[in-house]
Specification:
single chain; mainly alpha
Length: about 140
Protein backbone atom coordinates (compact mmCIF):
# COMPACT_ATOMS: atom_id res chain seq x y z
CA UNK A 1 0.00 0.00 0.00
CA UNK A 2 2.87 2.34 0.70
CA UNK A 3 4.02 2.14 -2.92
CA UNK A 4 0.51 2.78 -4.23
CA UNK A 5 0.10 5.68 -1.81
CA UNK A 6 3.39 7.22 -2.92
CA UNK A 7 2.59 6.96 -6.62
CA UNK A 8 -1.18 7.48 -6.76
CA UNK A 9 -2.20 9.58 -3.78
CA UNK A 10 -1.48 13.19 -2.91
CA UNK A 11 -2.50 12.64 0.72
CA UNK A 12 -2.00 9.82 3.25
CA UNK A 13 -4.28 6.81 2.91
CA UNK A 14 -6.38 6.28 6.03
CA UNK A 15 -5.94 3.19 8.18
CA UNK A 16 -9.54 2.19 7.41
CA UNK A 17 -8.87 2.24 3.64
CA UNK A 18 -5.75 0.11 4.15
CA UNK A 19 -7.77 -2.38 6.24
CA UNK A 20 -10.49 -2.54 3.59
CA UNK A 21 -7.95 -3.21 0.82
CA UNK A 22 -6.24 -5.94 2.84
CA UNK A 23 -9.57 -7.51 3.74
CA UNK A 24 -10.62 -7.63 0.08
CA UNK A 25 -7.26 -8.88 -1.16
CA UNK A 26 -6.18 -11.19 1.65
CA UNK A 27 -6.71 -14.31 -0.47
CA UNK A 28 -3.86 -13.23 -2.76
CA UNK A 29 -0.33 -14.36 -1.99
CA UNK A 30 2.44 -11.81 -1.47
CA UNK A 31 3.86 -12.73 -4.89
CA UNK A 32 0.47 -12.22 -6.54
CA UNK A 33 0.13 -8.83 -4.83
CA UNK A 34 3.61 -7.79 -5.96
CA UNK A 35 2.84 -8.86 -9.52
CA UNK A 36 -0.47 -6.99 -9.52
CA UNK A 37 1.02 -3.79 -8.11
CA UNK A 38 3.96 -3.99 -10.53
CA UNK A 39 1.61 -4.30 -13.51
CA UNK A 40 -0.43 -1.36 -12.26
CA UNK A 41 2.69 0.76 -11.82
CA UNK A 42 3.75 0.00 -15.38
CA UNK A 43 0.39 0.20 -17.13
CA UNK A 44 -2.00 2.45 -15.22
CA UNK A 45 -2.49 5.96 -16.60
CA UNK A 46 -4.88 7.41 -14.05
CA UNK A 47 -3.54 9.38 -11.09
CA UNK A 48 -6.00 8.11 -8.46
CA UNK A 49 -5.54 5.07 -6.20
CA UNK A 50 -6.48 1.84 -8.03
CA UNK A 51 -9.48 -0.03 -6.65
CA UNK A 52 -9.07 -3.51 -5.16
CA UNK A 53 -10.70 -5.02 -8.27
CA UNK A 54 -7.98 -3.49 -10.45
CA UNK A 55 -5.27 -4.93 -8.23
CA UNK A 56 -6.99 -8.34 -8.34
CA UNK A 57 -7.31 -8.23 -12.14
CA UNK A 58 -3.67 -7.20 -12.49
CA UNK A 59 -2.57 -9.99 -10.14
CA UNK A 60 -4.77 -12.80 -11.44
CA UNK A 61 -5.91 -11.63 -14.86
CA UNK A 62 -9.32 -10.34 -15.84
CA UNK A 63 -12.10 -12.92 -16.03
CA UNK A 64 -12.53 -12.23 -19.76
CA UNK A 65 -8.84 -12.98 -20.35
CA UNK A 66 -9.08 -16.16 -18.30
CA UNK A 67 -12.11 -17.24 -20.35
CA UNK A 68 -10.14 -16.99 -23.60
CA UNK A 69 -7.16 -18.84 -22.09
CA UNK A 70 -9.55 -21.51 -20.77
CA UNK A 71 -11.05 -21.92 -24.26
CA UNK A 72 -7.56 -22.39 -25.70
CA UNK A 73 -6.78 -25.02 -23.06
CA UNK A 74 -10.03 -26.88 -23.78
CA UNK A 75 -9.39 -26.84 -27.52
CA UNK A 76 -5.90 -28.27 -26.98
CA UNK A 77 -7.46 -31.28 -25.24
CA UNK A 78 -10.32 -32.14 -27.61
CA UNK A 79 -8.47 -35.30 -28.67
CA UNK A 80 -8.50 -36.64 -25.09
CA UNK A 81 -11.33 -38.85 -23.86
CA UNK A 82 -11.26 -37.60 -20.25
CA UNK A 83 -9.13 -34.48 -20.03
CA UNK A 84 -7.96 -33.01 -16.73
CA UNK A 85 -8.21 -29.25 -16.24
CA UNK A 86 -6.44 -27.24 -13.54
CA UNK A 87 -9.19 -24.64 -13.51
CA UNK A 88 -12.37 -26.07 -11.91
CA UNK A 89 -14.50 -23.50 -13.74
CA UNK A 90 -13.68 -25.20 -17.05
CA UNK A 91 -15.19 -28.49 -15.93
CA UNK A 92 -18.25 -26.67 -14.59
CA UNK A 93 -18.79 -24.87 -17.91
CA UNK A 94 -18.45 -28.08 -19.91
CA UNK A 95 -20.89 -29.93 -17.67
CA UNK A 96 -23.46 -27.15 -17.23
CA UNK A 97 -23.41 -25.41 -20.62
CA UNK A 98 -22.69 -28.42 -22.84
CA UNK A 99 -24.01 -31.35 -20.76
CA UNK A 100 -20.62 -33.02 -20.66
CA UNK A 101 -17.40 -33.50 -22.55
CA UNK A 102 -18.78 -35.72 -25.31
CA UNK A 103 -21.44 -33.16 -26.25
CA UNK A 104 -18.85 -30.41 -26.16
CA UNK A 105 -16.57 -32.29 -28.55
CA UNK A 106 -19.29 -32.64 -31.20
CA UNK A 107 -20.53 -29.04 -31.04
CA UNK A 108 -19.69 -26.46 -33.69
CA UNK A 109 -16.59 -24.34 -33.10
CA UNK A 110 -17.90 -20.78 -33.43
CA UNK A 111 -21.09 -21.27 -31.43
CA UNK A 112 -19.23 -23.35 -28.86
CA UNK A 113 -16.52 -20.75 -28.42
CA UNK A 114 -19.00 -17.95 -27.87
CA UNK A 115 -21.13 -20.03 -25.51
CA UNK A 116 -18.08 -21.32 -23.62
CA UNK A 117 -16.60 -17.86 -23.06
CA UNK A 118 -19.92 -16.35 -21.97
CA UNK A 119 -20.58 -19.27 -19.62
CA UNK A 120 -17.04 -19.17 -18.25
CA UNK A 121 -17.44 -15.50 -17.33
CA UNK A 122 -20.74 -16.20 -15.54
CA UNK A 123 -19.40 -19.18 -13.57
CA UNK A 124 -16.07 -17.51 -12.75
CA UNK A 125 -17.93 -14.47 -11.41
CA UNK A 126 -20.07 -16.80 -9.29
CA UNK A 127 -16.89 -18.28 -7.82
CA UNK A 128 -15.58 -14.78 -7.07
CA UNK A 129 -18.87 -13.91 -5.37
CA UNK A 130 -18.68 -17.08 -3.23
CA UNK A 131 -15.11 -16.24 -2.27
CA UNK A 132 -16.01 -12.67 -1.33
CA UNK A 133 -18.88 -13.88 0.84
CA UNK A 134 -16.43 -16.04 2.74
CA UNK A 135 -14.16 -13.08 3.53
CA UNK A 136 -14.60 -11.11 6.72
CA UNK A 137 -15.96 -7.83 5.38
CA UNK A 138 -17.08 -6.31 8.66
CA UNK A 139 -14.78 -3.39 7.93
CA UNK A 140 -17.19 -2.30 5.21
CA UNK A 141 -20.08 -1.88 7.61
CA UNK A 142 -20.81 1.70 8.66
CA UNK A 143 -20.29 2.43 12.30
Amino acid sequence: MAVLEEVFSDRPISRQIVEIYFSLLKDLSIDQMKEGVSKILWQRKYPNLPKPAEIRDAALGAVEDKAILAWNEVMSKTYEDTPKFKDPVIRKVINMAFAGWNNFRISDDYGSRKSFIESYIVYANQEITKMLKSLDLKLLERK
